Amino acid sequence: MQILPNVYLINGFPWRQTQNGYLIRSGKEMAIVDSGDLGTDTLDLVRANCAAWGIRLEQVTYLLLTHAHYDHSSHAARLQSLGVKIVTNQDGAEAIASGDDRCIGYAVHRPFDPCRADRVIRDGEEIALGEARIRCTEAPGHANSCVIYEVILEGRRLWFTGDVIANGPACQSAEPGWAGGPDYHRPTYLETLSRLRRMECDCLFPGHGPPCLADGRRQVEAVYTNALINWR
Q1: What does the alpha-carbon distance between residue 227 and residue 62 come to, in Å, rounded to a whole number?
Q2: CB 3.0–4.6 Å: which of 30, 123, 128, 160 could bond 149 by disulfide?
Q3: What's this model's pTM, rounded to 2 decimal places?
Q4: Residues of the chain with pLDDT > 70: what percent?
């Protein structure tokens, strides 16, 4: 499903899958943001949806992991075997290399297939994708491996937020991510949301729920407000 020029939803809620995966195209280069399972294997769906736009997974340059949780990262080893480079932060790299509880295999009753990150990014670092630049913002709280990827396309500032922000139906609400990970930490999460609300965002692409193509910053402010009300 093409959402914006050069931005595609390659699995997720339209296919009755709770976890979203996205593809960004810039010139001849492409990056996938998150690819994983939750109960059923979705890699064949990802492959088929990409093929509908004439894209083979072997053509993708990067898999950008928003965090190490199974439903966002469990395809990493298989995509890496196709030549896709895996990108995550230091904590995410350690988690996917070991496949430990930070990957929450226990929550889906499936073992995580470990792999090594090809590129370990830091807060504020940028990744070149064709003519575009993808800026990485570390956003711990939901998990220490959380990273938001920002890219400016067609004059719009797009945020791919993973589980830092989950959008409700029709983007009428926004909620924090699931609290069941071993490194979930509310005070850190609240600090992250406070920092993010001061930044600019036009369109917000969450790991769960529909993308928000207008007033993305309002979604960030909404989840911060939600957290202030419910966490203190």
Answers
A1: 32
A2: 160
A3: 0.97
A4: 100
